[in-house]
């Protein structure tokens, strides 16, 4: 008998601190598998965000740096410019990339920095207690919108991927999801594409991953995946944006 | 014929694998693991009403090695032997 799945070298064989059913575990594995398959483990530098994935560097077996909240793309810009032969990517949540880090995100994209971004969109602030994020859906209940997000008070869900797609420095944007095994495999292909673009010096690539947060959605793990499929996907349609 | 091995002590009991196994081969345990959680358990014979590709005659398990459980597990708890 042949083992068809083993921990790849780019991922430490460790339990994670994530809640049961959290999409971060899947996304970490996909990033590690892509790095391994492209044979770039020795020259990859990941930038961990602030958010639930703040200690992502504990799980990946390649070089990583931490950034202040929202500033991952500024740190990544510096590292990539000093080490242009290394492969530099950021891994950021929606509170990081689309709220406090909007500035860094838009300008890094507009400068066309040759970076890859893995953007985890779970429509809430997970680490700090499930508050309303810019990406929270209208009507979605969070700890700071207990009646549900209301457009007059909180505005609309921010579609940062569509916004970035307008910028000429951006070469690739795709939105994928983790709501079923086939979708997980598509997400992996998109992450691989983003890394390959960087290897070929094509510019700024971003993969937005709709990822479940069962804890702050107040749903069981499987129900969270169904919620992405039935509800979240309508607001954030899947597919290649640029 | 395939078989999966679940790292029961690492399993967080999200039961995504239970939901996605097309053969109904993974079940929630009655026992608790060292985290104090019910974990996912593999059974050789599944719920054949769930469809999927039928096992070949003489197979020791109903598992078709489709890897859906591996792909969806957020905690890398599952290995497949094919
Ligand atoms: S998907 Fe993984 S963590 Fe969840 S119940 Fe199955 S083996 Fe356990
Ligand atoms: S490999 Fe496929 S058939 Fe076998 S246990 Fe996993 S999901 Fe079920």
Polypeptide structure, described:
Chain A is α/β, with parallel strands linked by helices and 242 residues long. Chain A has one domain: Rossmann fold (3-Layer(aba) Sandwich). Chain A contains 9 helices and 9 strands. In chain A, the strands form 2 sheets. Chain A has a 7-stranded mixed sheet with strand order 2-1-3-4-8-7-9, sandwiched between helices. In chain A, strands 5-6 form a two-stranded antiparallel ribbon. The model of chain B has no long low-confidence stretch (mean pLDDT 86). In chain B, a hairpin with a 5-residue loop joins strand 2 and strand 3. Chain B contains 2 helices and 4 strands; from the N terminus they run E-H-E-E-H-E. With 82 residues, chain B is an alpha+beta fold. The radius of gyration of chain B is 12 Å and the shape is globular. Chain B has a single domain, classed as Alpha-Beta Plaits. Chains A and B meet through helix 1, helix 7 and helix 9 of A and helix 1, helix 2 and strand 4 of B. The complex binds iron/sulfur cluster (2 copies). One iron/sulfur cluster (SF4) binds next to helix 2 of chain B.
């Amino acid at each position: 008998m042949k083992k068809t799945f083993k921990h790849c070298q780019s991922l430490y064989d460790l339990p994670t601190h994530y809640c049961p059913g959290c999409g971060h575990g899947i996304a970490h594995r996909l990033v590690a598998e892509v790095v391994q398959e492209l044979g770039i483990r020795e020259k990859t530098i990941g930038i961990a965000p602030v958010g639930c994935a703040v200690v992502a560097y504990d799980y990946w077996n390649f070089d990583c740096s931490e950034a202040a909240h929202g500033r991952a793309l500024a740190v990544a810009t510096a590292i990539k410019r000093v080490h242009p032969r290394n492969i530099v990517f950021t891994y950021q949540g929606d509170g990081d990339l689309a709220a406090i880090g909007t500035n860094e995100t838009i300008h890094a994209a507009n400068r066309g920095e040759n970076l890859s971004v893995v953007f985890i969109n779970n429509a809430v602030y997970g680490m700090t207690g499930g508050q309303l994020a810019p990406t929270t859906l209208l009507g979605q209940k969070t700890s700071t919108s207990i009646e549900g997000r209301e457009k007059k008070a909180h505005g609309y869900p921010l579609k940062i991927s569509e916004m970035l797609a307008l910028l000429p420095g951006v070469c690739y944007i795709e939105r994928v999801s983790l709501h079923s095994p086939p979708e997980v495999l598509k997400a992996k292909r998109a992450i691989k594409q983003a890394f390959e673009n960087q290897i070929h010096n094509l510019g700024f690539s971003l993969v937005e991953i709709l990822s479940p947060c069962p804890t702050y959605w107040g749903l069981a793990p499987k129900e969270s995946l169904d919620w992405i499929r039935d509800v979240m996907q309508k607001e954030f349609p899947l597919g290649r944006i640029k | 014929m395939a078989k999966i091995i679940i790292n029961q002590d690492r399993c967080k009991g999200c039961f995504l694998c239970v939901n996605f196994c097309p053969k109904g081969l993974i079940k929630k345990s009655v026992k608790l693991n060292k985290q104090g959680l019910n974990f996912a358990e593999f059974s050789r014979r599944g719920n054949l009403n769930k469809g999927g590709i039928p096992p070949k005659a003489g197979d020791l398990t109903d598992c078709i090695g489709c890897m859906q459980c591996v792909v969806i597990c957020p905690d890398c708890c599952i290995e497949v032997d094919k």
